[in-house]
Design goal:
Number of domains: 1
Structural class: alpha+beta
Number of strands: 4
Largest sheet: 4 strands, mixed
Order of helices and strands: HEHEEE
Distance between the termini: 27 Å
Amino acid sequence: MVGSAALAQALNNRSFVSSTGNDANPCTRALPCRNFQVAHDNPNPGGEINTLDPAGYGVIKIAFGIMPWTPLTPSTTCVM
């Protein structure tokens, strides 16, 4: 089952991080991750990482091109 959970996480078009998230979560809006690295490793190409609140989200090793984008909302998005 662990492989199935990892595969499900890898299919996100949008991954979410939150100060109250957990890295065992699937990085969805309802169940966000806690760290940017976990969220970075999960979305599809062209996917997004969205922050739900301001916090320290840890160090991130970027493994592919990203395009930062700051919308006029409280959250921040990074398009992969």
